[in-house]
Each structure stands twice: as C-alpha cells, then as structure tokens.
Amino acid sequence: MAIEARCALAAVDFSVSEAGAIWRPASARASGSAPGRITLPAMTDAVLLGMPTRKPPRVASRAGRSYFVRTYGCQMNEHDSERISGLLESDGMVAADSAIEADVVVLNTCTIRENADQALYGYLGSLKAEKVNRPGMQILVGGCMAQRDRDVILNRAAWVDVVFGTHNTHRVLDLLDHSEEWGPVAEVWDETTSVEDMPSMLPANRDSEHSAWVTITIGCNNSCTFCIVPMVRGREISRRPGDVIGEVTRLANDGVVEVTLLGQNVNSYGRDLDVNGRSPIFADLLRRVGEVDGIRRIRYTSPHPKDFREDVALAMAETEAVCEQLHLPLQSGSTSILAAMHRGYNGTRFLEKLAMARDIIPDLAVSTDIIVGFPGETDQDFQDTLDVVAAAQFDSAFTFQFSPRPGTPAAEMEGHVDRDVIQERFNRLIELQNRITFDKNRLQVGRAEEVLVEGPSKKNPDVVTARTRGNRPVHVDGHFDAGTFMMVEVERAAPHHLHGRAL
Ligand code: SF4
C-alpha cells in the first residue's frame, strides 16, 4: 500500500495545496521543472496515501552521520531546535560544530526579524556552494518562515531538500527519508492535529544540563496586528497538566534545576482543556510545577498583560521555586496605538497590573517589550510610551523598531512612520531605559543574592556568568561549574550586569 502510494506521488503532477503540502517528484528535481504538487485534504488522508509516519518507532538509520541546526528567533524556536536535534540523534546522528562539517543542516527560521528573508536566502546561497562540493549533504528549512512561505522556499532555493512547518516538526526524519528517495519535498501542515505532535513530545538534545524549557502551549488565539505568530503557529493548544508535570519530573530526575515554561500567552493556558470537568488554569500549573522535587527555579514567558491576574501573582508569591521575575510586554504606552495593535489594555491598566504584581510579589524584577514607530504613532503617542516607561521602572526592556512583517495587518496599515523619526524616538527610549536599568542595578550593590551559574564568561575564562532569581546577570570571579547555586555579594553595578563576590 505504501509503495504504491509513493509511486503515485512520484509520477503525478497535481496542483493546488489545500493543506499546504507540496511534493516534488524526483523526476521534477532532475529536470529542473516546477514542483509536482498534490492536494492533501487532511493529514489522515496523507497517512492513507502511504506517507511514512513516525509510528511505529523506527530503527536508527543514520548512525555516524552528522547534523547542524541553526536557529533564528525566539525561545520557542530554540526549544523546537532542541527537539529537532533530539530527533536526529535518535536516528543515530551526531552534532557537528558547523554547517560546513555537517551531513544534514537544518535551518529553523523566524519571521519576526527585519530582513529575515534576505538573511535566510543569503545563508542558503552559501550552503549551495557547499552542497556542490558535497552532493550527499542535505539541507532542511523549517520554522515560521517555512510555515508562512510554503512552496516559495523550494522555488527560490531548489537545492533545499526538505521544507517543513511549525506543526510537523515531528516528521523531520520521515521527510528526510522521503527526500532521499524521491527528491526535494515540502510538507507544511495548517495546524497541529494532536498534542502528541507537539515538539515537546519529541526527544530533546538540550544545550544546558541544569536548565530547560518546557512548552505548555503552542499557538495563540490573540490577534496583535504586528504579530505573525497566529498565522504561523495557529490556534492555541495547551498540553495537559499531567504531561507538563511528567516532563518536568523527568527533567528534574535528569539533573535539571531550573525550568522556563513557554507559551505565546501563558495566562490563557488550559482554556481549551477539560480535566475532570474544568479547565486547568496557569496559576495551578505553576503551583504544581513548584511541587516537583529538585526544581529550584521556575520562570515563564510570556504572559499577556490583559490576561495577567491576581491569581497568577499569588501563585508566584506563594510558590517558593517561582522566581521573582516577570516579563510583561507593554509594546506601547499610547491608548490609540495599543488599540491599533489590538492589545486589549491601555497604559493606565498596564500600570495597575504592574502595581498589583509588585504589591503581591516582593522584590519583583520586571522586563518588557516595546515597539517604536508603529503605524500612526505621533510624537504624543511616543511621549505616552516614555511616560509609561518612566512610571513602570522596568528592570530591563527589549526594544524594537517597527518594520512591517508581510502577512500581518500592521503591514497594510496607513501612517507608516519615517525611519529617521523611528530611529530618533528609539534612541530616546533606549537612553531612558538604560538610565533606569543602571539605577536599578546600582540598588543591588551590597545585597547578598543567590545565583545559578551558567558557565564561564565569554570574555574572561576566569569569571563565570550567573543569574539572580530576578534574572539579572552577575559576573563572579572564579571557576564554578554550570548549574551551581551559590550566594554572592553584589560588589559593583554596570549598565547591564552586576559584579559579585562568592560568599
Ligand atoms: S499575544 Fe499577540 S504578540 Fe503574543 S503571540 Fe499572540 S498575537 Fe503575537
């Protein structure tokens, strides 16, 4: 059955792709003709057609081959890359130090950054030359840009072997098999069809032995007009609490002491679930994760300010392992810009939520995201942002200059702000926030803080970089193993880090 279906796929040149799946037969590859395409109304049909699946478990078949994963973008992508690496290693592959040494190169793409397309195709161009020298090399492109652009990548870079989206990461090995047998292939699913298909359910090869990300939701049901995530990651799906706790427990048994719970909007966790007749809530999940033996630090990202409520702040304050750290993305301080962004709050409401959190959680460190120059932003709108930033006194901020992302509503809006104006506003914002961050760092001097060592400093091997519970980086003289907890006295403050002495 499977072989017959594969033969059919290789021989027939269909058109249209409802489910976003595009199959390019080997014959098309050899002749350089346009990709062959087949309509796949649903993935169950794909399975019926005999496409290879991940079940039953396969025998590792690429022992000794090497791989390299290059990740663009956010923590969610970093986490997905750990899963992709884990999958490749489950097939016998070993990590290479660079793309030019690797048999299989995976690019896990992002659409958030400006000029992401140029960066991707530029890099693919350099890999093309490498592939000419080593025809056995395989190149895979996955992640958000692959999800959005579907067939474009194979059309623009015919030397790519596999294109896969954000919803079918688990099919990487099957798609590699397919490309070896039939030539380049693109398979992009429109949605994640079951919790089992989440990247979190795959084996992982983590970068850190003591710290791990744990996905609790994928996708997003919001519609922030600057954001591509709802389009490329789909509707929100929550993992069941038992799955999350099971993963955290396994991680703790493996020596992990710090977990970061990941979701596009963690505060809406569980709304799509029914556990014993009710929807679990994020506050309860935090408390349950806090009960796992061995986990000494819990962080999470990101909450949406409109959904951030007192129950979560209370759970943070009452769960010892949850760090006193909150990333609360402001984006703008202007009421009209926030409305145009579809954010569901205004500056006043944001500050009220922040005050509530700080009242409940002593010593809370707060970071944020801010976009400068959203379409229609006037001088007064920007001044409103500066006012909220001054009032909020964030410990740190990730600041961005607006640039239109194809496919987002904001890209189509009128009133785009001149680049020079954006730059000038951006500089003023950075100056203000840098001042606040430095002032806040100075307040730490003289304090005794528990830090978790991350590893040697990149600039000085005789110094380690560590983090406080508030997520402030601290440099400490000496040689301490990654994963070590220790107390330090903060001796000096720098604009973006602290210097501490081991106690
Ligand atoms: S909450 Fe808004 S910014 Fe965050 S992922 Fe969803 S749509 Fe994007």
CATH architecture of the largest domain: 3-Layer(aba) Sandwich
- What's the main sheet like? 7 strands, mixed
Distance between the ends:
68 Å
* Helix count, DSSP H or I runs of 4 or more residues: 17
Q: Helix/strand-derived class?
A: alpha/beta
Features:
5-stranded mixed β-barrel, 4 domains, globular, disordered N terminus, alpha/beta, 7-stranded mixed beta sheet, Transcription Regulator spoIIAA, 503 residues, binds iron/sulfur cluster, 35% helix, 17 helices, Rossmann fold
Characterization of this structure:
This protein has four domains: 2-187, Rossmann fold (3-Layer(aba) Sandwich); 208-323, 2-Layer Sandwich (Transcription Regulator spoIIAA), CATH 3.30.750.210; 357-443, Transcription Regulator spoIIAA; 448-502, OB fold (Dihydrolipoamide Acetyltransferase, E2P). With 503 residues, it is α/β, with parallel strands linked by helices. Helix content is 35%, strand content 20%. Helix 11 packs parallel to helix 12 (310-318). The strands form five sheets. A seven-stranded mixed sheet has the order 1-7-6-5-4-2-3, sandwiched between helices. A five-stranded mixed β-barrel has the order 16-17-18-20-19. Strands 8-11-12 form a three-stranded parallel sheet, with helices on both faces. Iron/sulfur cluster (SF4) is lined by residues 220, 222, 224, 227, 229-230, 264-265, 304.
